[in-house]
Amino acid sequence: MNAVSVFNKGIGLGAVVALSVTIQIASGGPASADAFADCVRDAASQDLTAKTAFQRDLNDLIVEQRGEFAAVATVNRDLQIAFAEARRARFDYLLAHDPDRIDTANGLSRFSNFDWSEADSNNFMAESESYRDLEQRIARLEERNNGHPDWPKLREYFHAELTRSPAFSSVMAHFQGRQSAVAARLAECRRS
User: Fold this and answer.
1) What pTM was estimated for this model as a whole?
2) Among 59, 65, 61, which Cα is nearest to 145's?
3) Percent above pLDDT 70 for the chain
4) pLDDT given at position 192
5) Which runs of consecutive H residues, i.e. helices, occur in the chain?
6) What is the distance between the alpha carbons of residues 101 and 81, in angstroms, rounded to a whole number?
7) Please, how many CA atoms are within 13 Å of residue 35, restricted to the half-sphere of its CB?
8) Angstrom distance (rounded) from CA 184 to CA 119
9) Exposed (0-12), middle (13-18) or buried (19+): which is 27, by Cβ within 10 Å?
10) Long-range contact list for 55-62, CB < 8 A, 24+ apart?
């Protein structure tokens, strides 16, 4: 995710997963599929956390600098987070139904922006009430965001002023640092 696209307890569990992978590898057991799934699931979780934190930080910055945009900025934050949650749900669906489509060899961008068809969406919506609910929430948020009278002004402010500010550069640097950690984790995810 780049700046322009924004607007158009795992310690115990991690230790268990690491121990499980270590035992499987040491015993010569089949760690490949499970280890790969655990690894990419962890990378996807880190990615969602990074994107959610970025949206919250960005919202906080906008509200701090231009409080008159608080309402629309908050709706946009919620919309962007819902988009990220939907992408994560789709990832989980692919991992369960067609894990070969998950690309770890071509970087974080390809991993995050996997192919998703209308047929995939229809199948997932038929299978999952929670995914249907998420898609409905996105539609409501898009309507509120795009129909908000301050939306054009916020976009103008974002592109003309905010993205050029040192405070925004700081938020982006923090996000890029988190994304680098996700990319490093993803590089560890290998199919056997």
Assistant:
1) 0.82
2) 59
3) 83
4) 75
5) 10-26, 32-65, 70-97, 107-112, 118-127, 129-147, 151-160, 166-187
6) 24
7) 18
8) 32
9) exposed
10) 55/6, 55/80, 55/81, 55/84, 56/81, 57/171, 57/174, 57/175, 58/6, 58/168, 58/171, 61/162, 61/167, 61/168, 61/171, 62/154, 62/157, 62/158, 62/162
127-156: per-residue pLDDT in tens? Answer: 999 999 999 999 999 999 999 999 999 999
Which amino acid is located at 123 in the chain? N
Read off the tokens for 112.
């995050």
What are 39-50's pLDDT values in tens digits?
999 999 999 999
Task: Say if residue 180's pLDDT is above 80.
Answer: yes
Burial group, residue 178, by CB count within 10 angstroms (0-12, 13-18, 19+): middle
Residue type present at position 114? F
At 32 the pLDDT is 67
